[in-house]
Amino acid sequence: MPDRTIVRGDSYATRRPLYVHTFVDDVGAPFDLTGCTVRSTFKTTTTDPSTDATDSTAVIKATLIVDGSGTATTETKMCLVGAATDGVCELRLSSSDTLALTTGTFWLSDVELTDANGEVFTFLYTDRLTSVNGYTNRTSG
Asked: CA 42 to CA 46: how far, in whole Å?
């Protein structure tokens, strides 16, 4: 995947999520997210989990928690799409989220899925995220 540039102050939400994550099992069927937690974090560099256990250096932290009935109980920037059995979630950022990002910086990310059995799967992304200022800044007229 190539680098991704977003515009500061723009929304990357329901109509245009930043990323759509579709999880599948070993035979390509949708991975049931019931009882799972999905996290995504964006940083300039990796950090040692024993010294940064809260991802304090992250500019974006997203969390989706799906309970045992398949209901999303926590959706912080990461949102369940459809039923948990569909295995799809989206990373969504508000206008204020993107406005808080600095320009001239590249962030890398991963997505970590912890299944209902407590097994952890991490998917590393090599594409970088950066933000730029747009040309249109007025909010009326």
From this structure: 9
What confidence tens digit (pLDDT) does each residue in 22-35 have?
999 999 999 999 99
Question: If you ran DSSP here, which 8-state letter would residue 64 be given?
Answer: E
* DSSP letter for each residue of 71-105: -EEEEEBEEE-S-GGG-EEEE-B-HHHHHTSPSS-
Give the span between the Cα atoms of 58 and 68, in whole angstroms.
Answer: 29
- Tell me the two tokens of residue 38: 């999905």
The dihedral region occupied by 104, where left means phi > 0, alpha psi between -120 and 50, and beta the remainder, is left
Cβ neighbourhood burial of 19 (10 Å; 0-12, 13-18, 19+): buried
CA 13 to chain centre: 11
Of 87, 55, 89, 60, the C-alpha closest to 75 is: 89
Identify the residue with better confidence: 139 or 110. 110
Q: How are beta strands 4-7 and 120-132 bridged, if at all?
A: parallel
